[in-house]
Amino acid sequence: MSLDKNCSFKDVDDLMKTVQLAVQIPTFLLGLLLNVLAIRGFSSFLKKKWPCYTATSIYMINLAVFDLLLVLSLPFKMFLSRREGSFLPFCTLVECLYFISMYGSIFTICFISVDRFLAIRYPILVSHIRSPRKIFGICCIIWVLVWVGSTPIYSFHGKVENYTCFHNMSDGTWSAKVFFPFEVFGFLLPMSIIGFCSSRSIHILVARRDYTQDWVQQKACIWTIAVNLAVFVVSFLPVHLSFFLQFLVRNGFIVECRTKQTIILFLQLSLCFSNFNCCLDVFCYYFVIKEFRVDIMTHRPSRTHSFLVWESRGGVVGLSGLFWSSVDQ
């Protein structure tokens, strides 16, 4: 932000240049390495065609691809956000990739939460209605949704001449008809679904405490579900709160200069640190792969026996990180 009438944002810009280097360079390096390895790891399970792990692997690969897109957009985001009047089509492409990856991750996590809840609540039913083809179809729907939803990004800068990529959004971008669909369908609705599914899953697992012989594992599941919900909220709630505050600024509800400077700083910081979520997601992939391998080694003598043991657990398989419980067919 350069200048808004008599209110300068130069100090915020200078501070964020330093913060971006300190946060986004490690995020890029770590996220690139770990997401590529995650995609490779889950692809190996697909190649081996083990039915117990196929649907899980498809979801995880989809999430890793979205995270990888965000990671790849970071160097361009840092470069373009420091150059005024960058090549607009390229700027728009980078902005699209950045926000598509963010909301693609949110929608994927949302569907994972629903899948996990259904598997815990209706394990036998889910084992018959779920298939890799259906899960792949859901992932394709997510891609279509985020690409179609990205169309307002093409007019982010409108007819502004002195623009900077990821800055100086046009007034139309912050209009109610553009902002509220993004806020409601892009975050509030998914967060509500994730919160409901996570809380119900925890409630069901706790209620089974006196009726299960595998309480230690289910207790770990409860903790991972709760932690995953907390990580999601911490990663994405500040960003969308800052979007709302900036909406108030751009529509004239907030006019005091110091307050506007604070909101801009909050917006930039929340976006910067939310990018690290792509690295937090990565660590969960390896816990999932570890669970897969432990389950395979434990029940290696008989694949049929392995599947029966999997199903007898009531569809509850401990997965750390973006953990969900499922009976995969």
From TrEMBL:
<dbReference type="InterPro" id="IPR017452">
    <property type="entry name" value="GPCR_Rhodpsn_7TM"/>
</dbReference>
<keyword id="KW-0325">Glycoprotein</keyword>
<feature type="transmembrane region" description="Helical">
    <location>
        <begin position="50"/>
        <end position="75"/>
    </location>
</feature>
<dbReference type="GO" id="GO:0004949">
    <property type="term" value="F:cannabinoid receptor activity"/>
</dbReference>
<dbReference type="InterPro" id="IPR000276">
    <property type="entry name" value="GPCR_Rhodpsn"/>
</dbReference>
<feature type="transmembrane region" description="Helical">
    <location>
        <begin position="220"/>
        <end position="243"/>
    </location>
</feature>
<dbReference type="GO" id="GO:0045671">
    <property type="term" value="P:negative regulation of osteoclast differentiation"/>
</dbReference>
<feature type="transmembrane region" description="Helical">
    <location>
        <begin position="263"/>
        <end position="288"/>
    </location>
</feature>
<dbReference type="GO" id="GO:0045453">
    <property type="term" value="P:bone resorption"/>
</dbReference>
<feature type="domain" description="G-protein coupled receptors family 1 profile">
    <location>
        <begin position="34"/>
        <end position="285"/>
    </location>
</feature>
<feature type="transmembrane region" description="Helical">
    <location>
        <begin position="20"/>
        <end position="38"/>
    </location>
</feature>
<dbReference type="GO" id="GO:0007200">
    <property type="term" value="P:phospholipase C-activating G protein-coupled receptor signaling pathway"/>
</dbReference>
<keyword id="KW-0472">Membrane</keyword>
<keyword id="KW-1003">Cell membrane</keyword>
<feature type="transmembrane region" description="Helical">
    <location>
        <begin position="178"/>
        <end position="199"/>
    </location>
</feature>
<feature type="transmembrane region" description="Helical">
    <location>
        <begin position="87"/>
        <end position="114"/>
    </location>
</feature>
<keyword id="KW-0675">Receptor</keyword>
<dbReference type="GO" id="GO:0005886">
    <property type="term" value="C:plasma membrane"/>
</dbReference>
<protein>
    <submittedName>
        <fullName>G protein-coupled receptor 55</fullName>
    </submittedName>
</protein>
<feature type="transmembrane region" description="Helical">
    <location>
        <begin position="135"/>
        <end position="154"/>
    </location>
</feature>
<keyword id="KW-0297">G-protein coupled receptor</keyword>
<dbReference type="Pfam" id="PF00001">
    <property type="entry name" value="7tm_1"/>
</dbReference>
<keyword id="KW-0807">Transducer</keyword>
<dbReference type="GO" id="GO:0035025">
    <property type="term" value="P:positive regulation of Rho protein signal transduction"/>
</dbReference>
<comment type="similarity">
    <text>Belongs to the G-protein coupled receptor 1 family.</text>
</comment>
<keyword id="KW-0812">Transmembrane</keyword>
<dbReference type="GO" id="GO:0070374">
    <property type="term" value="P:positive regulation of ERK1 and ERK2 cascade"/>
</dbReference>
<keyword id="KW-1133">Transmembrane helix</keyword>
